Amino acid sequence: MPRHRDAPDEVALSEPRSRSDPRCESRIREIAAVRVRYGYRRVHTLLQREGWPINVKRVYRLYRLDGLSLRLKARKKRVSAPRAVPLPPQAPNEPWSMGFMSESLCDGRRFRVLT
Questions:
Q1: pTM
Q2: Up-side HSE of residue 20: CA atoms within 13 Å toward CB?
Q3: How many domains does the chain have?
Q4: In this structure, is residue 17 part of a structural domain?
Q5: Using one digit for the tens of pLDDT, what is the confidence trace for 66-79?
């Protein structure tokens, strides 16, 4: 790749900055220990209220690295009631089925009837 003639031959690489503050990490752990049901967003809000200049993405990363993610509750399964089997018709003109009928009126409104 062509380089500009004024570009330096060697680039001085500096040591990378530490991206995490141990005081902030310990504060996240403290909040998570006291407020067990708080997620990373709420922890971030509390940190901001305390004056910590921290990004929500960094809070999420530190929260996950410490294994503090909330466990999702499993939804309870509802037991459906067994359906009653209708008796077969015993006489003529006895209803043997039920269903909805849908119709529309001349002005465009619709209505449903259980028959």
A1: 0.49
A2: 14
A3: 1
A4: no
A5: 888 777 778 888 88
